[in-house]
Amino acid sequence: MRFVLVAVYIIVSVSGLFMMKLGGEMHFGLLNNRLAIDVGLQNVLGILLYGVSFILYLAILPKFDLSYIFPLCTGIVYVLIVVFSRLVLKEAISAVQMAGIVLVLVGIVIMNFKAK
Asked: Could you report the per-residue pLDDT of 47-76, keeping only the tens digit for each?
């Protein structure tokens, strides 16, 4: 069950980041001496999703060793962001990013080997 929570965290985190990216720029300023924030619906949804991912992360932390779960979640989120940025946003992936993805994935695999 705790790995389901991790999977949901990863999905919600990546979704929140993508919604904020798709929402474009947010504008802050003063209007009639009051703070005005101009945000689109995608930005609001992204902020909400990313906020939920933070709450999920707080629920995950006590269930795992920090030295295990932080690199695991961060690595998987990083890899998914790069892959989906390429597929959805048509962003270029450099050779350095590809090498980084490979190193992150290798690191995740090595972390999961149990010492005998």
From this structure: 999 999 999 999 999 999 988 899 889 999
**Residue 16 and residue 25: Cα distance in Å, rounded?**
15
At 81, list the tokens: 């962001």
Rg of the chain in Å (alpha carbons): 17
Taking the model in full, what pTM does it have? 0.83
CA–CA separation, 60 and 84 (whole Å): 24
For residue 61, the 8-state DSSP code is G
CB atoms within 10 A of CB 17: 19
The angle, 0 to 180 degrees and rounded to 10, between the axes of the packed helices 41-60 and 2-23 is 160
* Side-chain half-sphere exposure of 104, counting CA atoms within 13 A: 19
Mark 27-54 as b/e (b = at least 16 C-beta within 10 Å).
Answer: eeeeeeeeeeeebeeebebbbebbebbe
Taking the C-alpha atoms of residue 49 and residue 17, their distance in angstroms, rounded to an integer, is 8
